[in-house]
Task: structure prediction
Amino acid sequence: MKDEAIRARAAQRAAVVKALAHPTRLMIAESLAEGERCVCELTELIGADMSTVSKHLTLMKAVGLIEGEKRGLNVYYQLSCPCFSDFLRCVDLITRKQASSLRRIAG
Result:
């Protein structure tokens, strides 16, 4: 039973990470870390048509990264968890270390 729980948790985590594994979705999430945004704002930020942005948002919502609320004609999105910025700081730390290692090797 314990192995099944570990596998299930790993699959859930993989789904969330996979949902973030696209530059556009990372841009959306980073923007939402600053506060809620409507689809029209996100469309402008991404520079893509509304249907493309909506597909990204649907995927992110399906794994629980974001929540949406319809107000009038617009849907406003926000992050489901306030810790996303911490996750990005961790990723940035990894990328800085990687870049530093590459400079040492090249230099």
User: Anything to note?
Assistant: The CA atoms of residues 19 and 49 lie 19 Å apart.
